[in-house]
Amino acid sequence: RAWEDIADRVQLVVAKRPGSPDTTPPALAQHLNERGKPLIHLPFSPRDISATDIRQRLARQLPVSQYLDPAVVAYIRQHQLYQSTL
């Protein structure tokens, strides 16, 4: 919700996910074009895992080093983020 407000406040950066189309939704493309803001595409090979899957792995104390930078993992652990509430 409020995607227009978000797009106005930040520089949007996207990454391709396996099985997802490589196209920008027309309304977003028009909105960004009207404001002279490009949509930045990250150049990397897609991985077949979602952010939800990574959060679930973190909550279960499973390894995530193959998905996240070590500094990100350290920050998550230090601030006790994504811990299971079970």
Task: Offer a quick outline of the entry.
This protein is mainly alpha-helical and 86 residues long. It has helices spanning 3-9, 26-34, 51-59, 70-78, and strands at residues 13-14, 40-41.
Strand and helix map with partners:
Layout: H1 3-9, E1 13-14, H2 26-34, E2 40-41, H3 51-59, H4 70-78
Parallel strand pairs: 1-2
Structural class: mainly alpha
Strand arrangement, major sheet: 1-2
Low-confidence runs of at least 5 consecutive residues: none
Tally the helices: what do you get?
4
Tell me, briefly, the overall form: elongated
* DSSP strand content: under 5%
**Separation of the first and last Cα atoms:** 29 Å
Work out the radius of gyration.
16 Å
The helix-strand sequence is HEHEHH
Main β-sheet, in a few words?
2 strands, parallel
Helix amount: 25-40%
DSSP strand count: 2
Overall average pLDDT: 90
Report on the architecture of this protein.
With 86 residues, this protein is mainly alpha-helical. It has 4 helices and 2 strands. Helix 2 links the parallel strand 1 and strand 2.
Name its key features.
mainly alpha; 40% helix; 4 helices; two-stranded parallel ribbon
